[in-house]
């Protein structure tokens, strides 16, 4: 009988070295440990991901109904920029936000803003090119900049100034290799909304050093207490700007995967970049078509999110509660978020003898079965912060805050 062929010992397949410095801790090692604990039958309260639907937030019925009706017509690929109807609706949205010099060919839909962040970083950055990114940040920006070979340079957002960007710090970090600046407004993880004066100062720095501006505005419809959201692109008609938004958060449909980006302002100086964006956009064929088909209805129909963020609404009331509860814990302090659904409290690390925020997150998980994301997960360079997602219902938050207070009352003391 024929002998079975002996296979040689297979070589190891290592991940690409491009990933060596890429970090995405929102779903990182502590979250893996939480999943492991869940698989053993333990109940974990997950306050780590900004995913509204599992916490009972619903999109307006008309959006779902619209998708149902349109589904049979969404079998094919769309234009790689996106459906005409979706882009037209986004164009009108851009007009309302006073974003100048927008045309249909400068609008792209994506499988969430996530895909478009990656696409832009790949299109813009050569090895060693620097890009200014906030600290703390939504970590996908740093991850995608790194993956594309660029160098993320973090500028500080100042907790003492309600988490606004520190303009002097930005200015001090510009070098001859800096190509762009990223702002996240409203901000994840801090909940800050930037006032006009701050945006104008950022524009001034970008103008002086000829930087491209990327503005992630996915939470623009979740502002509270009357805070007005201003698109930075509306203040920079002479500069190359890319503005990102989508329906994941404002319409509570993160699972449908629909976002967009809008090129505006000085389009001439980004012709070559646009060529690159078009190439990458073509290479991914198009974004999810059923999700594109509801953009028009979602943007211009009933805005259920408005009810959530005004007094009496769930996001508003939960924010107030969590803010008060955290600040009443000895050793914890937090700035009141103005938008979105995150809070980024500060820990008195001396009091609790904390030097490693991952260990702190693991200790909290093991002792109280609460999963948060450590500050380091947002490229914050001290072990003294963490992020809480305050989407769960009030009774769940009550329990979580009591557990948290109890945890800190005994932690390392
Ligand atoms: N930008 C920010 C600031 C976010 O917080 C998130 C998701 O949490 C995203 C982008 C990604 O959103 P999308 O669901 O559109 O990919």
Overview of this structure, please?
The longest helix has 17 residues, at 394-410. 37% of the residues lie in helices and 15% in strands. It has helices spanning 29-39, 61-70, 84-96, 112-124, 140-147, 167-173, 196-209, 271-283, 289-292, 295-300, 304-309, 314-327, 349-352, 357-368, 394-410; strands at 45-46, 107-110, 130-135, 151-158, 164-165, 178-184, 212-216, 240-246, 259-265, 332-333, 342-343, 346-347, 370-371, 373-374, 386-389. It has an eight-stranded mixed beta sheet with strand order 2-9-8-7-6-3-4-5. A three-stranded antiparallel beta sheet has the order 11-15-14. Strands 1-13 form a two-stranded parallel ribbon. The protein has two domains: 17-57 and 307-410, Alpha-Beta Complex (Aspartate Aminotransferase, domain 1); 73-300, Type I PLP-dependent aspartate aminotransferase-like (Major domain) (Aspartate Aminotransferase, domain 2). The chain has 413 residues and is an alpha/beta fold. Pyridoxal-5'-phosphate is lined by residues 50, 112-114, 138, 184, 188, 216, 218, 246, 248, 254, 259. Keywords: Aminotransferase, Pyridoxal phosphate, Transferase. It is an enzyme of class 2 (transferase). Belongs to the class-I pyridoxal-phosphate-dependent aminotransferase family. It comes from Slackia equolifaciens.
């Amino acid at each position: 009988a024929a002998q079975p062929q002996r296979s040689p010992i297979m070589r190891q397949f290592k991940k690409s070295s491009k990933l060596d410095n890429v970090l995405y801790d929102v779903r990182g090692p502590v979250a893996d440990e939480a999943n492991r604990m869940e698989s053993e039958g333990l109940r974990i309260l997950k306050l780590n991901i900004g995913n509204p639907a599992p916490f009972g937030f619903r999109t307006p019925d008309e959006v779902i109904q619209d998708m149902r009706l349109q589904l049979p017509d969404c079998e094919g690929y769309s234009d790689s920029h996106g459906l005409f109807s979706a882009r037209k609706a986004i164009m009108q949205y851009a007009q309302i936000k006073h974003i100048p010099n927008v045309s249909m060919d400068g609008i792209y839909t994506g499988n969430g803003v996530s895909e478009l962040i990656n696409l832009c970083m790949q299109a813009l950055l050569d090895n060693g090119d620097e890009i200014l990114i906030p600290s703390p940040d939504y970590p996908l920006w740093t991850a995608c900049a790194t993956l594309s070979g660029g160098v993320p340079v973090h500028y500080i957002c100042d907790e003492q100034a309600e988490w606004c960007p520190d303009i002097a710090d930005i200015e001090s970090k510009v070098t001859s290799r800096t190509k762009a600046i990223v702002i996240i407004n409203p901000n994840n993880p801090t909940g800050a909304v930037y006032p006009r004066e701050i945006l104008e100062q950022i524009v001034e720095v970008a103008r002086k050093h000829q930087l491209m501006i990327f503005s992630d505005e996915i939470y623009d419809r979740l502002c509270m207490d009357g805070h007005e959201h201003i698109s930075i692109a509306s203040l920079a008609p002479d500069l190359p700007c890319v503005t990102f938004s989508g329906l994941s958060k404002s319409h509570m449909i993160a699972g449908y995967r629909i976002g967009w980006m809008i090129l505006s302002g000085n389009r001439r100086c980004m012709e070559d970049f646009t060529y690159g964006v078009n190439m990458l956009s073509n290479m991914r064929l198009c974004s999810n078509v059923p999700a594109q088909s509801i953009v028009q209805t979602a943007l211009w129909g009933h805005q259920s999110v408005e009810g959530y963020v005004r007094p009496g609404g769930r996001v508003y009331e939960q924010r107030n509660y969590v803010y008060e509860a955290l600040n009443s814990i000895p050793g914890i302090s937090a700035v009141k978020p103005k938008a979105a659904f995150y809070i980024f409290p500060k820990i008195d690390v001396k009091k609790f003898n904390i030097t490693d925020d991952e260990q702190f997150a693991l200790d909290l998980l093991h002792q109280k079965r609460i999963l948060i994301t450590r500050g380091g997960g947002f490229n914050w360079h001290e072990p003294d912060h963490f992020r809480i997602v305050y989407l769960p219902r009030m009774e769940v938050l009550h329990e979580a805050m009591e557990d948290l207070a109890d945890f800190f009352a005994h932690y390392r003391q």
